Amino acid sequence: MAGRRVIRGRAVADGGSDRERSAGRPGPTPGFGADPRRCGCSGKTPLDRVVFPARDRVHEALDGTSVRLGSDADAAILADAADDGGTERAVDVVALGEERPTVPFDGDAGGNPIVTLACAFVGDDLADAERFGDALATAYAGLDGPEVTIGKGHAVQVPGLSGGLLWLEHFRSTADPDSAGAARRSSIADHLAANVDVVHAFPGLDPPEQARIAALNACNDVYAAGTTADRVVHPVVAAPAGVDPSPSRATDWYRAGLPSDVSVRRGSVLAHGGEGWLLGASVTARGGVGSTEPPIPDDCGVLVTRPFGGLAAFALGTLDGDRGLRELGRDRLTRDARPVAEALATCRPDPGESFDPARHLARVTDVSGEGIGGIGRLVARDGRSLRLERLPILSGVAEASVGHWRLPDVTVETNGSFAAVGTPSALARATDRLRSVERADPVRIGAVDGGDAPIRDAADGDPSRLVESAARWPTAEGER
């Protein structure tokens, strides 16, 4: 049975006896022995098979408690965050299915609502919707008391681990509750967005570069929410027991790898009984964002801010010994997308401004572990469908993915591009602004209509060569 203890600020999970673990010695640094087939967002817990059904179970189980699941958005919005940055935080770690977390902030139910970020490190035995959902529900129910919203959750598989760990970070505004309530009632205001994300380590990269990729990948979700200022990063590192670094050492990796204007808090380190290193972060950023999304207008299209395939280029280049392809992917993985996000933010309503479909983007999301499927799911929430007319892929990736080996989905990204949904005039306006951003390469990939599937295929060629799930996409009738 897995257990958890805390030693010198580190959370330690015993994922089973030594004979149950990998016979090989764990890598002393993140890049040592990392698997290119599972690096970055390729190792997320399966969404359709595990995460989404588990989420439904958790929602039902929390009925009658003061804890609720937030919307399925890129980032949590802390609408009550004080203008002076006054937000208190608390971190907890529990063994999934065995422990309940401490009720945050001493269980005080009289203050402002609490928004919680949750990251699950999932063992092999929990890669099942019922078991995973029940373990999460047990943990979340332990927060009952004050008003708590699980604002953003993330799950990642840890091969060879039995059981799992749940890392939690709680946020609560220190603003006066009356003024905070007024902020909640404002449709657009200066809000704080928060996200947590963790990825598997990349082969051959030094720790500061690993930390940079992991943190910037987590930043992309808050960027997509329209918040790019005052970035704060809380490192999260999970490593095999025995080689786990001290929290101060892990924090130094992030400080060395990130831009100097990013504030880096003291990190959390979790030691586990499985295989491989994982790096990530919780991130907050400030900006003017809408607390509600407008309906997607008619006659919308979708553009991406650069072709897909950055993670695939790195993985395929590593596997095939193609240094040029690997470096192309490395360049994409390590690039800060903040300038792109700032350009997109100018195409969204200013604080207090009404949404204008002719000028404003209706949706912006980042492309990461779901790949292009995440864009389809985004528009499907509004009862719409993406009619895919073009699948832009980085040069060299398509050629490398055929033959002796291929990735299941070359559109799965880490620190990837953004997808924007808008009317033709709104997309044209966004494209004009993106042209001034170095290395942005916006391209329209299709239209949004009333089709009966999240994605319908109207592209030339056979997308299933690059995206296995494309074999299940219905054809857009009469358009191929």
Automatic annotation (TrEMBL):
This is Uncharacterized protein. Residues 454-465 have a biased composition (Basic and acidic residues). Residues 1-39, 448-480 are annotated as: Disordered.
